Amino acid sequence: MIKLLCHPITKLLLFSGGFTSAILILRAINLTFDRAVSFAISQVTLMQQPLYAGVFYGRGFVMFALLFLICAGTLLVSVWMTKPKQQGTKLLGLWRNIDFFLLVMLAALIALFSIVGLRLFYAPGSAHLNIQLYEILGLPFIAYTAAMVTVSEFVARIRDKDLLRTLYWPRFFRLYPVWKPLGLLLSLLLIGSMIVVLATTREIVSAISFDPWPAHNFRITRIPSAVPTELLLPFSLLTLISTTYLVTFVLNLSAKYAEASAEKVRAERLKSELITNVSHDIRTPLTSVINYVDLLKKLSLEGEAAEYVSVLDRKSDRLKMLIDDLIDASKAGTGNETVLMQPVNLNEILGQIAGEFEDSFAVRDLSLVLTQTDEPIMISADNRHLWRVLENLFSNAAKYSLPGTRVFAKIRFNESGKPMLTLKNTSEAPLDLAGDILTEQFIRGDRARQSKGNGLGLYIAKNLVELMDGQFAIQVMGDLFILEIEFCGDEEE
Fold this sequence. Notes:
five-stranded mixed sheet, Helix Hairpins, alpha+beta, 7 strands, single chain, Heat Shock Protein 90, two-stranded antiparallel ribbon
């Protein structure tokens, strides 16, 4: 039964039955309809026709209306019961992607002009008429088809859960409200296009409805004589359609961007989880290795055995540091690190970290030039994370500065009155990367295997600064490395 109901021939019969019942409704409520049909068939004037058709006026209206409701309702039920095709046809895909707002508006315009034409064809009061049959049945067919196609498409899109997806303007304004620049611009374009469409439609309809026609010929031989109005309606419709599909393009672009961002976040999360899990798994056997190395160091070993234990000691310590850095980088990159903000004296903590690295700088023949203010500079920061940030930065300076040069560390206030730390040093190796790239994970790549670093120091420092609501920036000028950190001032200061 359902298969028979959903068959295309059944739908065509229901569509035809609905149209026939609509014509019968029109015939039952309009005295001039039967008379106009007689003229179209015989091609003679109204005065020569008998008025026999008028005796049917008003008869059968309820029956025809009921028949129309049955046919139209059954057609919509058949559309609802039809399963979406597992098709690869592009035509249906293009049709289903048409903005439903445009579809309703275009169908309404088609139906409106058809109804206006019907009103003129059936208007009484002219002594001579010359009406073609296709004009009498064609215009109702156009209006009926436009209405049924729109309603059927409405039912089909609700069935396929596609209606909200193809209401592009509501989706657009949900994403870009009118108080945002793009939303305001396109809302003005939409309102302007709609005003022009409605104004030109009203003018054309008024001209068709009230333009005087010759008494000997009732056929519409022209639309309003104002040429700009005739051209303005299709132009405004084209503008509205183009604007709508510009909105579609923006929505698709936003969806792809959101999808790419979500995929990037997911990949970062999975990578961080992998790093954390692997690091924890490695830490357990590494602890055993370190413990056994400590036991070997207590034995009286000489020669190559002692040298081997020394190598094991150094390498296990480096591996432990790398695992700790990996875990810290994973936590800092995903924002899972706990932050306890409190007032911190930046002058004091910078002086302490400078003292910690005094020996490291001396080994590399580096001179630290520290510029501080006389009064304390209080910032809002996590003391533990701030120490880790400064430790990473001074460690980088000690490892990679050109021996015999000076390292400049300066505390100052910027133009907006926020405390800043600037660190400058001359790199021993050429700096062939941009500043923002230097803060990425493992940026040193293969070079990390031949040095003490692992490429995570700046990445961890940057993320920890941002977790404390600060700003982290790097500039590279030749071999000059300039790092600037903007801190949040202490509100209680």
